[in-house]
Amino acid sequence: MTRKLILAAIGKLPQDDAVMGRASRIAQDADAVLGVIHALDLPGDRGEACDPTSFLGQAVSAARERIELALSDLRIAPERVDLRIEIGPHARTLIDACAALGPDLMVMRAHQNSDIRERFLGSTVERVISTATVPVLVVKRADGGPYARIAVATDGRDDALAAARFASGICPRAKLALVQSVEIPPQLEEAMLRVGSRREELAAMRARLRNDATRQLGGLAGELGGDTSFEVLKGDAARSLTRFCRRGGADLLVMGQGRGSLIRRAFIGSVSRKLLRDAACDVLIWPAGDTAGTSPT
């Protein structure tokens, strides 16, 4: 039986120590192989990278030594890690690695850079998420031990059940909660008021939305079993989920990519983007449709 693969994408050290630590913890809990990949965006080809006398070959050796030292400092035996040093642009290299290796989970750091190129093309994290067909865990804080509280956010149309089962598989000791934000879109509310709808009608519509969400979450919680809890949040999805995480509702937020079908290969949704930026906890993005993987347990 083929063992599962947890792949940690390493850019800078020691900034990415938390990525390696988190990926190692998940791999251990899931009895999976820990892979580490580092992309060197330097001119040259694979043949030159294998030549220890060339500039590129020396850069590869130096990168390998730094990563192996960091692994040892984290008490991760380097000989038990599938370490890959690849040549090429960071995002493209990681996307190609996902396609070639088929990891069950990619683990990356939330980059804080915001240069003009990233504003137009998106960060490396966003570009990998929008293109890869595997779940991507974005680490936003230091590894403080196993996740204790996982929140799976759903909009009622995504594959929340599969995402929740996957999250439980990689964090078997964590408590699981399902959350959904409900609101009347501002444009719809304004249009309803313009055609004469009363405030009471809007309040009744909000109540129906909350009741529908409560029934749906209750059904999902029943299928998941255990002590799965659920909560309906009020208001804008990005803001309400950000508040939920900040008040200690979760140390891992799981959600879908939130992309429309016409642009699904180019961008991630605005809610996902905002939560990658603003959530006070790590974020796991579940791929859309039937491209998603299965639990690594």
UniProtKB/TrEMBL annotation:
Annotated ranges, domain UspA: 4-140, 147-285
Listed InterPro entries: Rossmann-like_a/b/a_fold, Universal_stress_UspA, UspA
Family, as annotated: Belongs to the universal stress protein A family.
Protein name: Universal stress protein
Organism from which the protein derives: Palleronia sediminis
